[in-house]
């Protein structure tokens, strides 16, 4: 189980060069003139953690929401598991979504449900053939994986921000996704809790062999988790490299993220 050990050292840069996510020429405009994405191109290889940096409003979250169909782009191509998700039927898209975990910035827990009910609801929605005792076992395991077994009967209002993020992550993990999309996983958390969440992201990658895109403003999180970093500027990918490479970039704007 994930909690058994904490390996906070990153593995070497992902050796696999098998693309699991490919985005080509992605465009999205809101309203008449608010052009957010102006031709985003990116590839994420299997087993890789890709961090996307950018100023607020640069389109980071819009990009990952397009991947799972929460936002429909104006044009472009998005291939996940070698399937063009923009051309899929609703049922086929839902099958893809089950293989993709999405950790929302807020954690997105249902306030009226206990922790147990939040996780069980997700299982019942996507795996209707599970018996009640199987659901309970999966819920307990998921909470154990994020170190919060004792929170099973708590309500979201009883949890700290960091605990809510962990429960949100447990709910994502319960479907055993192959890809996880993290939207600002450490926003609003103190330094110690932010590091704990970043370490948990690493643990999940090492144990589950997941592929991830991590949207963040937290440079400590980026340094700890990223195999590769892309920087969004003016609706396109402006720079790409490892943390160490971009930290030494000759581009003053890119380097400003690391100061």
UniProtKB/TrEMBL annotation:
<dbReference type="InterPro" id="IPR017871">
    <property type="entry name" value="ABC_transporter-like_CS"/>
</dbReference>
<dbReference type="GO" id="GO:0016887">
    <property type="term" value="F:ATP hydrolysis activity"/>
</dbReference>
<dbReference type="InterPro" id="IPR003439">
    <property type="entry name" value="ABC_transporter-like_ATP-bd"/>
</dbReference>
<dbReference type="Pfam" id="PF00005">
    <property type="entry name" value="ABC_tran"/>
</dbReference>
<keyword id="KW-0547">Nucleotide-binding</keyword>
<feature type="domain" description="ABC transporter">
    <location>
        <begin position="21"/>
        <end position="259"/>
    </location>
</feature>
<keyword id="KW-0067">ATP-binding</keyword>
<keyword id="KW-0813">Transport</keyword>
<dbReference type="InterPro" id="IPR003593">
    <property type="entry name" value="AAA+_ATPase"/>
</dbReference>
<protein>
    <submittedName>
        <fullName>ATP-binding cassette domain-containing protein</fullName>
    </submittedName>
</protein>
<dbReference type="GO" id="GO:0005524">
    <property type="term" value="F:ATP binding"/>
</dbReference>
<dbReference type="InterPro" id="IPR027417">
    <property type="entry name" value="P-loop_NTPase"/>
</dbReference>
């Amino acid at each position: 189980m994930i909690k058994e050990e904490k390996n906070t050292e990153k593995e070497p840069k992902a050796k696999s060069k098998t693309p699991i996510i490919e985005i080509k020429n992605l465009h999205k405009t809101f309203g008449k003139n608010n052009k957010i994405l102006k031709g985003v191109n990116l590839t994420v290889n299997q087993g890789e953690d890709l961090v996307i940096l950018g100023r607020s409003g640069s389109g980071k979250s819009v990009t990952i929401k397009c991947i799972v169909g929460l936002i429909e782009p104006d044009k472009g191509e998005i291939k996940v598991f070698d399937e063009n998700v923009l051309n899929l039927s609703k049922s086929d898209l839902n099958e893809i979504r089950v293989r993709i975990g999405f950790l929302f910035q807020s954690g997105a827990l249902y306030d009226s449900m206990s922790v147990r009910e939040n996780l069980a609801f997700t299982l019942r929605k996507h795996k209707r053939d599970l018996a009640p005792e199987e659901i309970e076992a999966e819920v307990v395991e998921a909470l154990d994986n994020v170190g919060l077994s004792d929170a099973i009967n708590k309500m979201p209002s009883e949890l700290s921000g960091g605990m809510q993020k962990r429960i949100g992550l447990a709910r994502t993990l319960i479907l055993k996704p192959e890809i996880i999309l993290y939207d600002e996983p450490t926003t609003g958390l103190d330094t110690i809790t932010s590091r704990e969440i970043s370490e948990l992201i690493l643990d999940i990658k090492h144990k589950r062999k997941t592929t991830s895109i991590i949207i963040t403003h937290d440079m400590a999180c980026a340094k700890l988790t990223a195999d590769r970093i892309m920087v969004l500027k003016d609706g396109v990918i402006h720079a790409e490299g490892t943390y160490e490479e971009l930290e030494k970039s000759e581009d003053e704007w890119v380097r400003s993220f690391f100061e």
